[in-house]
């Protein structure tokens, strides 16, 4: 529900009243005197989805030239009310997209809202820098909770949606401001993360292998599903703002697609990891393009257009051109994500084949680990480590040959030979086992059957040839 308050000049008073009566809207009128002379203040409570159509009707009768309107949010209305917006039940003949375009705020309210959110202020700079530093800390400490916290304080929703609103309503000033805010935000995020990572490098952690940090590795070699996250973020962000819903929670989702990758870019620069740098940069670019593309599409489908018909054709051409540009950019960058997705499936198949080979073996396999060499968009299996109960010195060679014959990959195989020693104890006195006294662990002795696993002090390796 919204409350529309209009300052109506005397010559438009009767026209506005007739308009309100025709629409069967409840209204109140107060006569006031201002620095613009005598005028009437008309207050009209109206449903949120009907505000834009009502304002267009006011423009048609000339209220835009001789007066102005203020729109405020109404928390509640006490008492019974009758309004032309309460329609009698009729057969449902609405177009398929009608539910999607209803219950949205007016273009004027949307434009004012995102204009305030997209302004570059000291607060915007401060929160962007702090969120990037916090995200960088979360990546270094491998803490998902800290990374989520960095998303909460990132102020990136306004610029992302503002550029789309500027395009659709033909507000070039809003579009340029929002694009500038997005660019500045990314520069601040990457720059502050880089400076912070350098400070950490020269004071606390001189060497860090980024490939061993799970939160960083999860953003290396991003697959095609990463595109879904970014598209969903942009779509939900635009839908939320255009519905007048609370923005901070939705802003977290947009920040999730931008802040951690930006912080990872800074880390990869400071600790110089080209593989990480290329991968997370591609992820960051595709997320930016996808968020703007989805936001633009959602607002267009929801029916937002410029106020005057002369601007609508210009806005349509501009919007279609920008949608096409974003789509081409997404398709180009997404080719890398598709390559990564194919490689992920190949690696999953490789691991399944290795497990199958292990299951076919007459040796008891305890665990299998596969090591990979990371490239910017792919991972290549290089080594397989097998923990097995075997005394055969040739098991590693046989296992490697089976992997090569089935998968075509010539990887090194390392077998860690393990043995299981079982003690049968029938009383409180432990039975000696054939091990040295140093190996015994008194805390693990219990009456009954106890099984202990001890790795042998040697491994057997079969390098690729």
Automatic annotation (TrEMBL):
It comes from the Archaea. Residues 81-101, 422-465 are annotated as: Disordered. InterPro entries: DUF389 (IPR005240). Residues 436-446 have a biased composition (Basic and acidic residues). The chain crosses the membrane at residues 117-140, 146-167, 179-200, 220-242, 249-272, 278-302, 323-342. Keywords: Membrane, Transmembrane, Transmembrane helix. It comes from Halocatena salina. This is TIGR00341 family protein.
């Amino acid at each position: 529900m919204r409350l529309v308050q209009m300052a109506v000049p005397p010559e438009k008073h009767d026209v506005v009243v007739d308009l309100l009566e025709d629409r069967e809207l409840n209204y109140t009128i107060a006569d006031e005197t201002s620095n613009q002379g005598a005028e009437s203040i008309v207050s009209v409570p109206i449903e949120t989805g009907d505000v834009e159509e009502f304002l267009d009707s006011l423009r048609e009768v000339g209220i835009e030239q001789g007066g102005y309107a203020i729109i405020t949010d109404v928390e509640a209305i006490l008492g019974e009310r009758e309004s032309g917006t309460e329609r009698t039940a009729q057969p449902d003949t609405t177009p398929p997209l009608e539910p999607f375009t209803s219950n949205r705020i007016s273009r004027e309210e949307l434009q004012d809202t995102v204009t305030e959110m997209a302004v570059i202020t000291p607060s915007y700079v401060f929160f962007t820098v702090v969120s990037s530093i916090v995200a960088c800390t979360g990546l270094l400490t491998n803490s998902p909770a800290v990374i989520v916290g960095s998303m909460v304080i990132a102020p990136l929703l306004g610029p992302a949606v503002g550029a789309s609103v500027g395009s659709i309503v033909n507000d070039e000033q809003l579009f340029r401001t929002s694009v500038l805010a997005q660019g500045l935000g990314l520069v601040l995020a990457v720059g502050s993360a880089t400076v912070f990572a350098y400070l950490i490098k020269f004071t606390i952690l001189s060497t860090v292998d980024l490939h061993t940090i799970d939160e960083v590795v999860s953003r290396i070699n991003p697959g095609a599903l990463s595109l879904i996250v970014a598209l969903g973020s942009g779509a939900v962000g635009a839908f939320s703002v255009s519905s007048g819903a609370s923005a901070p929670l939705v802003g977290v989702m947009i920040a999730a697609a931008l802040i951690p990758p930006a912080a990872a870019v800074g880390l990869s620069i400071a600790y110089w990891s080209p593989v990480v740098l290329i991968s997370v940069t591609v992820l960051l670019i595709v997320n930016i393009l996808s968020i703007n593309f989805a936001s633009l599409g959602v607002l267009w489908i929801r029916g937002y257009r410029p106020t005057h018909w002369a601007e609508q054709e210009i806005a349509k051409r501009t919007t279609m051109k920008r949608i096409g540009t974003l789509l081409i950019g997404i398709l180009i960058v997404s080719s890398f994500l598709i390559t990564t997705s194919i490689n992920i499936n190949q690696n999953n198949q490789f691991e399944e084949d290795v497990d199958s080979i292990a299951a076919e073996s007459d040796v008891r396999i305890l665990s299998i680990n596969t090591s990979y060499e990371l490239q910017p968009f792919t991972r290549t299996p290089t080594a397989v480590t097998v923990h097995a109960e075997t005394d055969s010195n040739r098991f590693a060679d046989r296992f490697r040959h089976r992997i090569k014959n089935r998968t075509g990959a010539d990887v090194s195989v390392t077998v860690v030979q393990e043995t299981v020693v079982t003690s049968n104890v029938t009383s409180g006195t432990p039975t000696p086992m054939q091990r040295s006294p140093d190996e015994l662990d008194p805390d693990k002795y219990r009456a009954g059957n106890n099984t202990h696993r001890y790795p042998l002090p040697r491994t057997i390796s079969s390098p690729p040839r």
